[in-house]
C-alpha cells in the first residue's frame, strides 16, 4: 500500500486544540447523519479552523459537515499557512490512534527489537501474503540496526471473507501461537513452511484486525509511529528512518 507523495511530504505543523461544536450545530449534524445513515455512530463533533465546517468523528475515521448538517465531505482537510501545509485530518486521527495503541498488550505483538537502545518504535499491521509486507520485512534487520524497534500486529485482508481461523488469518494464528513467533513470521514471509504452533493457544487475530480498523487501516502494510501518525506503507529502511527523524 502506498500513500500520496503530497501527504508524505506535509510538514507536521501546529494546530490549536479542537473545540467542541456548539449544542445547536452538533444537534443538527447528529440528527442529519442519523436520518441519512441510521447505523452511523457519531462519537464527537468539533469545530475546525475552516469557518462553517465541523469535524465529525466516527469509529472508522473523520468526515466533515456543514453547520446545518446538509453537506458532508469525505477526505482530508489541509490547512495552508504560507509554505507550511498541515494535514488536520491526519493530526486528529493520530491523536485518536495513540489512545488505541495504548490498549495493545506487548505480549500480543511480534517484536523485532532495535540493536542497543531503541531510538524509535514502529507499529506495523501486516498480512503474510501481501507482497509489500514481505518487501518491508526484508528491511527490518536494517531498521533494527538503525535503532528502530518494529512491532507487528496481524491484519489478514481476507478476514471478512475467510474469518479469523480460515485463509490467511488461520495461518497467521499459527504464527502467533508459535514457540518462536519471530522466526515463524520471517519464514512465512519468505514463502517457507514454519514449525507447528503450540497446542491450546488462541491467537488474537480477530482482535488485532478490529484494532486496525479502529486505527483506520485500509491496506497493508500500515506503518505507524509512536505519535499515531501513519507513515504510509512500504518504504526502504533509510526513508523510514528519515521519516522518524533519525538522520
UniProtKB/TrEMBL annotation:
InterPro entries: DiS-bond_Isoase_DsbC/G, DiS-bond_isomerase_DsbC/G_N, DiS-bond_isomerase_DsbC/G_N_sf, Thiol:disulfide_interchange, Thioredoxin-like_fold, Thioredoxin-like_sf. It holds the Pfam family Thioredoxin_2. It is found in: Periplasm. Its main location: periplasm. Residues 1-21 form the signal peptide. The keyword Disulfide bond applies. Residues 114-244 form the Thioredoxin-like fold domain. Residues 23-90 form the Disulphide bond isomerase DsbC/G N-terminal domain. GO terms for cellular component: periplasmic space. Keywords: Disulfide bond, Isomerase, Periplasm, Redox-active center, Signal. PANTHER family: THIOL:DISULFIDE INTERCHANGE PROTEIN DSBC, THIOL:DISULFIDE INTERCHANGE PROTEIN DSBC-RELATED. Belongs to the thioredoxin family. DsbC subfamily. Required for disulfide bond formation in some periplasmic proteins. Acts by transferring its disulfide bond to other proteins and is reduced in the process. This is Thiol:disulfide interchange protein. The lineage of its organism: Bacteria, Pseudomonadati, Pseudomonadota, Gammaproteobacteria, Moraxellales.
